[in-house]
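Supplementary Methods. Inverse-folding protocol.

Structures were first reduced to a discrete structure-token string of length 365. This string, shown here, constituted the complete conditioning input.
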């Protein structure tokens, strides 16, 4: 069981290869976050051909090639951009640098696949919208807590089949283990990581929009705080937000860096989805005290009570769909507007929380 979510990179048991060797060539540029392993791994499992890797840090490149030895070492990102065989560049750069890199990727005529959060400012988002419109290229985002979690994918299928009727509320928890000694310096600099609602809150907001079938949402309330890490004054170790979707559905989520050491995985992520005809609960990574294996799905509706262990049963269709989308210029994996809207709401929630933040000292204002 993974103890650190920074290197969460599940491998699919149920694989679907959607293209042949050399038909969809990709590169990995900027290896600042361990999510790059899951991003590239998912694409390779679906048939992508990994040709290049580039990062200015040779140690990161060496570690990457231990898992993906087929990747050639590029001497610069320009070398990658100049290769006409490369159709998509995957990246997990420092959060504040993801948008500038994306602009360079799109300008080179390639699609871009970035780790979440894709932006740290609304200005970056605005520029990305303009560049996508200008180039016609994709700016896709790795919202891994839905896209790379079989229980979340299965929940979406149940909802689409009408198992719980119309979704009226989504509640999510996204606890993470901090493991501060293993984190890079930029992780503790607010300008670079963007804040907790911008960072891990992005997963929760994207899931709300998906499960509740919303195309937009208002941030009714948001809050961030540093409760227990004064040695990292720019870290927010707790965040929460309440959303109201444009179809009337409501959402609430809490994210934090308080996973206790006694938990065998990096975070007890859970989601509860309430519908007009039932509800679904996801225990994504562990079912505490009962089952160490994650991807446990609980369904209650008018027909009865059900429990499904879906680990290894569903697969991760996003990656194959993304490859097909890039080749055919379709939007089946995720629409561009959905990817951008989730990011936009994250940034609004983060800004609202910061502007209304109350600084507490010893419990008093």
């Amino acid at each position: 069981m993974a103890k650190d979510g920074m290197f969460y990179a599940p491998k699919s048991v149920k694989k679907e290869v959607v293209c042949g060797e050399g038909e969809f060539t990709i590169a990995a540029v900027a290896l600042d976050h361990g999510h790059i392993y899951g991003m590239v791994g998912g694409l390779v499992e679906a048939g992508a051909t990994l040709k290049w890797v580039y990062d200015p840090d040779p140690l990161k490149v060496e570690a990457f090639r231990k898992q993906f030895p087929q990747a050639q070492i590029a001497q610069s990102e320009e070398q990658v951009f100049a290769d006409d065989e490369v159709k998509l560049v995957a990246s997990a750069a420092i959060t504040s640098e993801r948008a500038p890199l994306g602009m360079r990727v799109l300008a080179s005529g390639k699609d871009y696949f970035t780790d979440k959060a894709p932006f740290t400012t609304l200005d970056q988002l605005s520029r990305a919208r303009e560049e996508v419109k200008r180039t016609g290229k994709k700016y896709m985002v790795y919202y891994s807590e839905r896209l790379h979690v079989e229980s979340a994918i299965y929940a979406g299928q149940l909802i689409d089949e009408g198992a719980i009727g119309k979704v009226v509320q989504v509640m999510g928890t996204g606890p993470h283990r901090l493991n501060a000694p293993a984190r890079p310096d930029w992780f503790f600099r607010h300008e670079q990581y963007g804040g907790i609602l911008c960072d891990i809150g992005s997963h929760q907001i994207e899931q709300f929009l998906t499960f509740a079938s919303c195309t937009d949402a208002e941030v009714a309330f948001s809050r961030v705080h540093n409760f227990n890490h004064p040695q990292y004054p720019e870290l927010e170790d707790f965040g929460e937000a309440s959303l109201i979707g444009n179809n009337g559905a409501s959402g609430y989520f809490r994210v934090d860096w308080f996973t206790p050491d006694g938990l065998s995985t990096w975070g007890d992520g859970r989601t509860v989805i309430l519908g007009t005809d039932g509800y679904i609960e996801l225990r994504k990574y562990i079912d505490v005290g009962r089952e160490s294996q994650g991807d446990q799905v609980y369904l209650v509706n008018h027909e009865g009570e059900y429990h499904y262990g879906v680990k290894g049963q569903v697969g991760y269709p996003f990656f194959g769909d993304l490859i097909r989308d890039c080749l055919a210029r379709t939007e089946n994996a995720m629409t561009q507007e959905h990817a951008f809207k989730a990011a936009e709401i994250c940034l609004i929630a983060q800004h609202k929380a910061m502007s209304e933040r109350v600084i507490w000292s010893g419990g008093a204002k």
